[in-house]
Write a structure and sequence with these properties.
2 domains, 17-stranded mixed β-sheet, 4 helices
């Protein structure tokens, strides 16, 4: 089985091109095997390229634990570069079907080579029942969340998948490895949540540390960066165009006056190969 490894700012994925392959595959089971960093290829998730009846191509992403999120911002940039480079989709911009809907992706070029993409991530979802979060009000901004005797102020946003954004002063005192998984599974979030801890650097810059639902700590999260900028604007902490600094690099996020969030960032190949072991 042939595969390609790609990453967006260190958020890495195993890609399977099944656009023209008719196969019965248990992708969640396969993701856990291929994404294992010691016994597999290694990755935060498995991305499968499939045909679509409503868009140019369909993206399925499966987390390393076998769960299937609605969307992945870093994954969709890599997806768009791959399908263009392979001649699957020959026009730019392109439309990609995801569980969060059909998104428009415009490729960025340096000379004749694709370097990254600008993705129209759509409108942020701020209704509590649609995020979903068991919070009060619309939007759910700066509300108190209690856990293990501690109280945190959080803002809930969905970019097709749920996010809990918490602003912090100092990462040095943040118990990230304990708080990340605990907040992911907090009772306020019926479908679990991604968790972003945000430092405000200036009205145009923030720094983000993320615990991803189903994947744990990652070097970058595109939907998380989008949700964090929306949360920062709602809390009057930044302007609407912000550079987000992540462990793997930077994303540029714009919350436009059309209420759409636009994400710009790189998409990078790592290697291609062939899986030789029997799939179990």
């Amino acid at each position: 089985m042939e595969f390609v490894k790609m990453h967006g700012l260190g958020n890495d994925f195993v890609f399977l091109d099944h656009f023209s392959v008719a196969a019965e595959v248990d992708y969640p089971k396969l993701a856990k095997q291929l994404c294992h960093r010691h016994f597999g290829i290694g990755g935060d998730g498995l991305v499968v390229i499939l045909p679509s009846k409503i868009a140019d191509a369909r993206m399925r992403i499966i987390n390393s634990d076998g769960s299937e999120p609605e969307m992945c911002g870093n994954g969709i940039r890599c997806f768009a570069r791959y399908v263009y480079d392979q001649g699957i989709v020959l026009h730019n911009p392109m439309r990609v079907e995801t569980l969060a809907g059909v998104l428009t992706v415009g490729l960025n070029f340096q000379g004749n080579q694709v370097q990254g993409a600008r993705v129209d991530m759509g409108e942020p979802i701020l209704r509590a029942d649609l995020i979903p979060v068991l919070g009060q009000g619309e939007p759910v901004v700066g509300q108190a969340l209690e856990m293990s005797g501690e109280t945190f102020l959080y803002t809930a946003v969905s970019m097709g998948n749920p996010h809990c954004v918490i602003f912090v002063e100092d990462y040095a005192t943040l118990d990230f490895e304990r708080l990340g998984p605990a907040l992911e599974k907090h009772r306020l979030f019926p479908r679990k949540t991604n968790v972003e801890f945000i430092q405000i650097n200036s009205p145009q810059e923030i720094t983000m540390k993320v615990w991803e639902r189903g994947a744990g700590p990652t070097l970058a999260c595109g939907t998380g960066a989008c949700a964090s900028v929306v949360a920062a604007v709602l809390n009057n902490k930044t302007e609407r165009a912000v550079t987000v600094h992540l462990a793997g690099g930077d994303l540029f996020i714009e919350w436009g006056l059309d209420n759409h969030v636009y994400m710009t960032g790189p998409a990078t190949y790592v290697f291609k190969g062939e899986w030789l072991e029997t799939l179990v």
